[in-house]
Amino acid sequence: MTAPRPVEIVVDGVSKAFGTVQALVDVHVHVRAGEFLSLIGPSGCGKTTLLKTIAGLVAPDAGRVVVGNRTVDGPGRECSVVFQDFALLPWATVQKNAEFGLLLRGVPAAARAERARGVIAKVGLAGFEHAYPAQLSGGMQQRVGLARALAVNPQVLLMDEPFASIDEQTRRVFQDDLLQLWSEERKTVVLVTHSMEEAIYLSDRVVVLSPRPGRVHQVLEVPLPRPREGAGVRATAEFARLVDDLWKVLRKLQ
Ligand SMILES: Nc1ncnc2c1ncn2[C@@H]1O[C@H](COP(=O)(O)OP(=O)(O)O)[C@@H](O)[C@H]1O
Ligand SMILES: [Mg+2]
After folding, report:
1. Residue 109: CB partners within 8 Å, gap ≥ 6?
2. What ligand is nearest to the CA atom of residue 50?
3. Is the confidence at residue 154, as pLDDT, over 90?
4. Average pLDDT over the chain, rounded to an integer
């Protein structure tokens, strides 16, 4: 599959309520084509709701989301989502899980199998094609989630706290692998995280949402040079300063 051109995402005045709970109010975010952008904010501020709105899984009450040149009105081909709880099919092998999105798109079996094998290798799971999710560690299960998302070669990768339930060592390796993949595939990435270090380490910009109802409180630039993976970035004074800047913003929101 040829790499699709990355697209920009425009979140234009999005508001969303669930019954009497106002989750988002007039949210404006412009994600540049090929950018790695993180969303961070207090629990319940609407991060997941915003991500699902971009994915077309939640319809906004007001405002709109434009991905590339399409106004989102339902799930589309541009976006793949990696969920926090992996959302794998427990009865299916790694191979079949990775093929799932392709199956939904009607890709023939042989092409499906080949493409899935390729992305399974890319996320570091070669040799585990015939394993079932329950036989894998949390980190490996999340790699399957990533393989499934990448298999359909989306222009946009949306990730909802993908590293939240993974131990710290595994997480750091996975973060470096993700940066490596992103540098090869140049997708537009929106990552929801509650980790300040993670947001700074991975992102070009970090969007801080205010407590519910969520709105954009501040946007921080992360001017750390790339590639960051394997470059000892976490040990630099600049990294520490950026994490501290982000903490100062978040602390005031508590
Ligand atoms: N499907 C839903 N039905 C009812 N309330 C919801 C639904 N999804 C989210 N909410 C509520 O909207 C608010 C924002 O939720 P969410 O987007 O999950 O926040 P976050 O991901 O930042 O923790 C919360 O108060 C949550 O309980
Ligand atoms: Mg959430």
Report:
1. none
2. 1
3. yes
4. 94
| pLDDT (0 to 100) of residue 1 | 57
Which regions of the chain does DSSP assign to beta strands (E)?
9-18, 21-31, 36-40, 62-67, 70-71, 79-82, 156-160, 188-192, 205-209, 216-221
Helix (H) or strand (E) holding 96: helix 94-104
Residues with CB under 6 A from ligand 1: 18, 21, 23, 43-49, 212
| Sequence letter at residue 250 | L
Q: For residue 205, which amino acid is it? A: R
CB 54 within 8 A of CB 79: yes
CA 31 / ligand 2 centre spacing (Å): 19
pTM: 0.95
Residue nearest to atom 18 of ligand 1 (CA): 48
Q: Which two tokens stand for residue 16?
A: 């969303």
Rounded distance, CA 6 to CA 187, Å?
Answer: 5
Distance of CA 52 from the midpoint of ligand 1 (Å)? 11
- Residue ranges of domains in the chain, CATH in brackets: 1-78+188-254 (3.40.50.300)
Reported as a single tens digit per residue, the pLDDT across 98-111 is 999 999 999 999 99
Near ion ligand 2, which residues have CB within 5 Å? 47-48
Q: Residue 160 — very low, low, confident or very high, per pLDDT cuts 50/70/90? A: very high
With b for 16 or more beta-carbon neighbours within 10 A and e for fewer, the 126-149 pattern comes to eebbebbbeebeebbbbbbbbbbb
Tally Cβ neighbours within 10 Å of residue 120. Answer: 25
